[in-house]
Design brief:
This protein has 99 residues and is α+β, with helices and mostly antiparallel strands. Helices cover 44% and strands 33% of the residues. It has a single domain, classed as 2-Layer Sandwich (Double Stranded RNA Binding Domain). Strands 1-2-3-4 form a 4-stranded mixed β-sheet, with helices on one face.
Length: 99
């Protein structure tokens, strides 16, 4: 999966970039075709915010999460994306069966 990570109001670190990449690679097996992800990691006062826009062939999902810890925010946003992807795939699957 191609991943573009943007840091706002936070120092960029290779460890955080690798952490995001490893988490998003787990979602790649749920997608039919390889996808692209635009990740924005930012800090506003005491909040750590992770936003992800993920797109594939027919699928486009977006999730955002904010916590006190950046890695926890990344974990939560990946969980949200996983739920959205499985829900949309199930929806498409049931529509194909009906027609």
């Amino acid at each position: 999966m191609q991943t573009a990570v943007t840091f706002q109001n936070i120092d960029s670190s290779p460890q955080l970039r690798d952490y995001v990449q490893s988490k998003l690679d787990r979602l790649d097996k749920l997608l039919d075709k390889p996808g692209t992800a635009d990740v924005t990691l930012r800090v506003e006062k005491m909040r750590r915010i992770a936003e992800v826009n993920l797109s594939s062939q027919w699928l486009s999902v977006r999730a955002s999460e904010e916590t006190d810890d950046m890695q926890a925010a990344i974990d939560l946003v990946v969980d949200k994306l996983k739920r959205q992807i499985t829900r949309k795939k199930e929806k498409v699957r049931t529509l194909r069966v009906k027609s």
